[in-house]
Amino acid sequence: MKYIRLLSVTLLLALVACGQPAGNGEPVKIGLITPLTGEIAALGVDISHGAELKLAEMNAAGGIQGRLVQLVMEDGRCSGADAAAAIQKLINIDHVVAVHGAGCSSESLAAAPIAEAAGIVLMSPSSSNPDLTSAGDFFFRTYPSDDLKTTAMAQYFAQEGFKKVAILSEDTDFCQGVRMGLLQKLDEGAVVFDEVVDPNTKDFRSLLTRLKKLDFDVLVANPQTPPTGAAMLQQMREAGFQQLVISHDVMDNTVVLELASEAAEGFQVINVPTVASEAPFGQKFIAVYGEPQANMAWGAYGYDTLGVLAQAIEKAGTDGAAMRDYLYALDSYPAVVGDISFDENGDVLGIHYALREVQDGAFVQVADIAVE
Amino acid sequence: MVQLFINGLIAGSLGALVAGGLALVYGVLGVFNLALGQMALIGGYSTWWLHQSLHLPLSISILGGLLVGALLAWLTFEIFVNPFYRRHRFLPLVTTIALSMILDGAILLLFQERPRSIVPGLKKMVQMGDARISMEQVGLILITFVLLASFAYVLHSTAFGRKIRAVVQHEHAAWSLGIPAHILHRLIFILSGVLAACGGIFLGIDQNLTPIFAFPLTIKAYAAIIAGGKGNFWGAILCAYLIAFLEQFVVGIHWFGLFYVPAGYQQSVALVFIIFFLLFKPSGLFVRSARAA
Prior knowledge:
Shape of chain A: globular
CATH class of chain B: Mainly Alpha
Helix content of chain A: 40-55%
Number of domains of chain B: 1
Order of helices and strands of chain A: HEHEHEHEEHEHEHEHEHEHHHEEEEE
CATH class of the largest domain in chain A: Alpha Beta
Radius of gyration of chain A: 22 Å
Strand order of the largest sheet of chain B: 1-2
CATH architecture of the largest domain in chain A: 3-Layer(aba) Sandwich
Shape of chain B: globular
Helix content of chain B: over 70%
Radius of gyration of chain B: 19 Å
Number of helices of chain A: 12
Largest sheet of chain B: 2 strands, antiparallel
Strand content of chain A: 15-25%
Mean pLDDT of chain B: 84
Low-confidence stretches of chain B: none
Distance between the termini of chain B: 44 Å
Largest interface: A-B, 38 and 35 residues
CATH topology of the largest domain in chain A: Rossmann fold
Number of strands of chain A: 15
Oligomer: heterodimer
CATH topology of chain B: ABC transporter involved in vitamin B12 uptake, BtuC
Number of domains of chain A: 2
CATH superfamily of the largest domain in chain A: Response regulator
CATH architecture of chain B: Orthogonal Bundle
Strand order of the largest sheet of chain A: 7-6-8-9-10-14-15
């Protein structure tokens, strides 16, 4: 009996110890959720490298108010279920003060309500699904919504005189967001082909056979991951199509060039502008991690997102509500990707788009696209 | 139409290789090998590694990939199947699930997350009437056909094949007639690994290899062997082609001149069709009459 009482007292003490807020000497813990494995891992790896770069710089400069910063990384696997489990763990076990993430839109859509309920700021460097605009007061993103991207695409098609558009999408939250946006913004009857395939489908030949019978000006390749998109490109060119193929951020990725090689020639993407390898940030990144796995832009967004979060903690403290209010009121943060701030929904302001094209086996920026 | 038929042949050949490997092992040993998809991928990845990293000629790389497939299958048999399958035929189900997870991890460690293509870029396309097909695809379809046909020949028209069939029918009776059943088991398992590795190499040449592809590959092969009739090598292969054709035709045809089936239903329609057939012929599409107990 005595032992049991002793044991329960010890357990109680242990529980109390766990629940205590971190003292001043303890590091500030920030969680990070991004796909670190799976078909889109290259993006997640770049984002986490960017964040680690910022982390190293901050800690070298003395951390936040004398406290070191610690990143707790979780793999969201580009899936809502994994991201939900990850953010629960970060909030309830690691007691992080804010979360950097999530990477994929599916992850953020699942994680945002949990962050909201816990009153923890969740800030995504890469989720672009339009539904995230209304994902709650604690969700922010440094990456623009697809609502803007599809507007940019529709604007570009109008400018080029593309009247007949074919869309080939993968059935994921992100791709459906892009697809719905396009269907909304293009004129009625402009979309002549609109097919949605199961995630990770790699065989588009019969769909392309059907497309052969149609007359269209441009194909929007709307995949969730680069291998799927590369298969689309390759099979389309092999089937003899000459039309322009245009895609988005997912395909602005060196993996595509590697897999599709000459099939990618002339292929275009509308995406946020990348960060040049020669730019100071690119140089810093390459010195530590080498060439990015997917795109230098992801490294920059990972870096900036941690920067914004750290500034919010520095200025407003570790309380989630105070951080949230600080971020809404934020005037302007000088990020690598541009001077950014947030609107009343937590969506980023200050990022524009660029049109990039594959020329001689490399992405080249061909035009800026301003979206009002 | 011709193009749809060719598309079906390409997809079907891939399915038939894996399903053939699965059916062989299931037919002879009564063992389900759930790691077959991973074994296929490892064959494909090894070929990619030999060809793209060591810059060996494609033919030698493919041989290397097949060799790795054979070696892996042999090790699998010795470690994960042989010690267990005599005790209960469901035990290897568990051990091969474990193996599939180990192999998933090994693929990630050895070949990383990045997708790999054995022959990247555009293939040379040939115009055949309305249809287009690449030389690689013609080769893959023909090789699959020759491979499966020679298997069938060996199985049905040689003394060696007769021994295998004898072991399938009654292992102990075959033993007592002096047929070395244990060696044949090993051989069959290794052959199934080679067929699976062929499938992986096929995939790596025609599309690209990613670590998550193993499970869907196994599932489709299972659908084929169940629809084809348990333990029926021919049934499994025919059903693998059938599923592939169904998948291609379902989305490719303008049904009754009225509508197209949305691509999202591509896989489900084919499998629902199989289920429907099994309702009427529960023993499998290609089994003439079921022996009811």
